[in-house]
Amino acid sequence: MTIQNDFGLQTPIASGFGPRTTAQTIIGEQDLRGKMAIVTGGYSGLGLEAVKALASAGARVIVPARALEKAQTALEGVSGVELERLDLMDPASIDAFATRFLASGRPLHILLNAGGIMAAPLVRDSRGFESQLATNHLGHFQLALRLWPALEKAKGARIVSVSSRALQLSAFDFVDPNFNSGEYDKWLAYARSKTANALFAVAMDKRGKPHGVRAFSVHPGTIATDLARHLTDDELRAMGALNEQGERVFTEYNDEIKTIEEGAATLIWCAVHPQLDGKGGVYCENGDIAGMTDTPYTPGVFEWAVDPKEAERLWKLSEQLIGIKFEN
Fold first, then answer.
1. Average pLDDT of the residues of the chain
2. What are the tens digits of pLDDT across the range 31-60?
């Protein structure tokens, strides 16, 4: 099953990569000297592995972090990295970070939105927005809009948003996106924020394509990272992510369950690989563009997460929620 829209064909391209491919394999011998990247969440898990891969190829990488000391420790020994302060739940912090970067006059070739939270208890930001929507989608939405001049200046840039197969669990809720009336469900909130990540890529690519800015969303696989910090041991045990020593790791790997190195591969593929030149607005997994599916818990993307009309609807709502309009 495939879907054709204005932003490309949501069908695999036989890239030659797969679930066991690593980020370093994707980077290969690419030369990224002179390229500028920003990686949110770049000091832990998939984001950290992506930073290492990009830096190893010569890219200059900025890692914005709320916990600067933690980030500095994690990135010790990784060359070509700059640390900056950023809190995705704080709109003033996002604006300040973007202002500092734009003032440097540098183009931005890669914006990799790898930061996020999962299955968090109900918390609201200062605007009253539910934390998973605020962090995973709205924070990155605002960041991309504020950094637009630098992305356009690159004359060839990519925006990559880390989504999840969890998007198969729910379409985006336009009636009650912040759980103001409905009962809060941490997994439903997470799923909707991941659907939002995929829809953002569709709408962003539409706007960026004429300017050489392409956008992608990624399902990295299921990986044991700090993203699972809000889950209990019982929840992790049920997922097979707790070993006999009580360590939060998977003991077996398959096409869905991956190492961190494997999980970061599709992020890097979308960020830099020439196989995606001229493409955009698609959801990717296992080092390739994903196909369509309507069967839960199987590879592929549901139509509600790549529907152009839903993407435009979310874009307009997001502009209203953060009070910023995209100007190009």
1. 91
2. 999 999 999 999 999 999 999 999 999 999
Query: Tokens in use for 100?
Result: 């500092």
- Distance CA(141)–CA(121), nearest Å, equals 22
Q: What stretches of 3-152 adopt beta strand conformation (E)?
A: 4-5, 8-9, 36-40, 60-65, 81-85, 110-113
Q: Which residues of 228-245 are buried (b: 16+ CB within 10 A; e: fewer)?
A: beebeeeebeeeebbeee
54-84 pLDDT, tens digit per residue, is: 999 999 999 999 999 999 999 999 999 999 9
CA-to-CA distance for 310 and 113, rounded, in angstroms? 21
pTM of the model: 0.92
Sort strands 157-162 and 213-219 into parallel, antiparallel or unpaired. parallel
Q: How many CB atoms lie within 10 A of CB 308?
A: 16
Q: What tokens does 57 get?
A: 């190829």
Residues whose CB is less than 8 angstroms from the CB of residue 288 and which lie 6 or more positions away in sequence, other chains included:
12, 13, 14, 15, 17, 18, 266, 269
CA distance to 52, 54, 55, 61, per residue, from 29 (Å):
14, 11, 12, 18
d(CA 280, CA 89): 27
- pLDDT per residue as tens digits for the range 216-255: 999 999 886 555 454 455 554 554 544 454 544 555 667 8
Nearest to 93 by CA among 64, 113, 114, 118: 64
Q: Are strands 4-5 and 8-9 parallel, antiparallel or unpaired?
A: antiparallel
Q: Which CATH superfamily is domain 4-322 in?
A: NAD(P)-binding Rossmann-like Domain (3.40.50.720)
* Catalytic residue positions, numbered: 190
Handedness of CA 148, 291, 269, 297 (dihedral sign): positive
